[in-house]
Amino acid sequence: MSVTITELSEPAPVLEPVPETEGKEEEQKPDAEPEQRRSMKRRISLADVEMYLRPFDWFGSLRAKIKHKKILSRLRPAKKQKKMGGMSDELRRALCSNSMTSMDMEFVPDLIGKSELLTDDIRKKLCKKIPPRVEGHPWSLIFSSSEHGFSLKSLYRKSSAYECPMLLFVQDTDEQIFGALCSTPIHMSEHYYGTGETFLFTFHEGFRTFAWSGENLYFVRGSPDGLEFGSGDGHYGLYLDGDLYRGRTQRCLTYNNDPLTGSTDFIVRAVELWALT
Predict the structure, then answer these.
(1) Pairing relation of β-strands 111-112 and 83-84?
(2) Where is the composition biased (Basic and acidic residues) (predicted)?
C-alpha cells in the first residue's frame, strides 16, 4: 500500500478590508487648512471693516452735534442791543455810515448840557473829523467856565469821572473859537499822553483841522500850572495857563499847525469841555 505525501503549503495571508473612512480622512486633510484660513480671513476682514467704520461713526456724531447747536442758536432769542444815549448801535452806524454821507445827509450829535459856544454848524463839521469809534455818541458838557469858574484844577476834577475822548473849546476875546480833541480823558501828568487820534482845530478864517504830523509823541500834557497840546522846539500848538486866563498858540512839530487864532498870545473869554460818552 502506497502513501502519498502531500506538501503542505503556507496559508495565503488574509487581507483585511481597509475602512473607507481612513482614505477619506487622508483625502480631506489637505482641504481642511484652506477652509480654516478662509474663516480667519473672514474674521480679519470684518475687524478691518469695523476699524474703518469707527472714524466715520465718530465724524457722523460730531456733525450731528454741530448741526444740533446751530439749530438751537437759531431758536434762541437774539440779544438786545445795548443803547447808548438813547440810540441803538445799529441806528448809530446807519446814521454815520458812508452811504448817508454820500446822500448829503448830515448827522448832528446830541448835546447833553447847554452850550454858549457850539452851533449846529460847528457840530456838523467836527462830527466828520472825530474818531470813528465815537461817531454818533452824544456830547456831554462836563466843564464850563461860566458855570465852574476859570480854574484848570476844576477842569481836571470834572474830567476825572470819565473814560472817553474829549473836545476842548476855547473862545478868545476876539470871539474866535478853536480847540483840540484829546483821544483820552484830560488829566494831570508828568509825561505826555494821548494817541495819534488827537488833533487841533480852529474856526478862525474857516474851519480847519491839524492832525498828528508823526514828528513826535507830544500830544497832551497837563500840570497844575498849564495845559498844553503839542510841543516841539519850545513851541506849543495850544497852551492854557492854570487860571484859564491867558493862552498861546504857535506852530509846533506835533501837529505842524498854523496859529489857531489871530495872534500868538490871547486872552480867554470862555472854555468848555465835552466828553464824547
Answers:
(1) unpaired
(2) 26-38
